[in-house]
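subagent[fold] <- orchestrator: predict structure for attached chain, return tokens only, no commentary.
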Amino acid sequence: MKIYTSLLIIILSVSLSKSVRSQSFEILSNNITQTDAPLRHAIILNDSTIIAVGGWGWGSGVIIKSNDYGQSWTPTDTEKALFSIYFVNDSIGYAAGEGATIMKTIDAGESWIYQNSGIASAFQLRTVAFLNPDTGFVGTANGPGFAFLYTYNGGETWNNSEPASVYGRAKLQIVNDSTVYALPYDNKFYKSTDYGESWEAIFLPENTGSSRDMHFFNKDTGIVAIREFSSICGNNMFLSKTNDGGDTWTTDLFECDYIDNLTFPTSEIGYATGTSYSSIGERYMWRTIDGGLNWEEFEYQVGEEFEFVGCIATAFACVDQDTCYMPTNYGTIIKMTHASGVLTSARDKDSDTANQLLIYPNPNNGIFTISNKSEGESRISIFSLDGKKIYESTLNELGESHRISVPNLQSGIYILTIITEKNSYYGKFSKL
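subagent[fold] -> orchestrator:
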């Protein structure tokens, strides 16, 4: 019991500290990405496959795909610049952009076909999202009049919503099987709970400004980034969080900052970037480890080649809480590892890895596999970060791997330990 208690104390004390391991940045150069076009958006298909889209203003665009963790990329030229990409499943995906362009793939981005959006080419199609292979939505901007597109047949035909019923140029987010959020650059956002048949306008906190990005964890709980004009420095930003679908809000003010991208790989771990510069060759970004209650500022690198130019990250595509790809407006991609910092495995040092467990997938839905530790009888335990034991089992011997099923855990970060007669092992995982 003494070794067991001591191990838990060590793990918890390191877990709750602020600097277990800092972020690492790898700049994937234009020679690697095979493009110097501005990249606007990216998506992860699996831990090794990433697709990014972009292009030059009203001109031509590009789709780039990597199947080897970003080490090499294959480009596909497009007629117009692209703003957004979304995959319904491992095979079916959509991209949207300038000139009312909608493109579809059914082979995981190996080939693309153009669809007829049915609206004037002056429209920019800024964001796309799908509830299922048949039902999807596209938010537009800068067209002659109003457009918000929807399809119920996988994009074979696209329809235009009634004017003023919904608008979503900033972001679309699918929350569950029937719920969609649409965000304009406005003092409100829109919510549909009936597959997009009808929309409810939900207003942001008073005296803040216009929305820029959002992330909803479920149909009621979400965070919205809001821009307020500042006569002193141009921009103030608010990160406003609601737990009741927008009836009430708690708000954090970021003076003289501009936050334009939000992502949450887990319910607790989130990242944000903006347009502010820090020191030469570095830019500001923010991180939260408690679901957006508190944010920590740090810097990311853009590379020596772009020290004196306006190179910034334009989006996030995260494999998990610790590995994210950040496309930039100069065609490069920044690969960030150890991203969550304080939430890497306990005692995570290059010289101290023998007792760390491999837990996969991570994050997971409460069903996962742990790596082989075959040393006779083993006691497996799971703890919350406050030290409360919430699971325990004893095995005579672990095989090459062992599957654990705890699907009823609440979303959050957990510590897993294995105690054998000879050794103690530990790891962390995130329950989505």
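orchestrator: received. Logging for downstream: DSSP finds two helices and 35 strands in the chain. Confidence is low (pLDDT under 50) at residues 13-20, 342-353.
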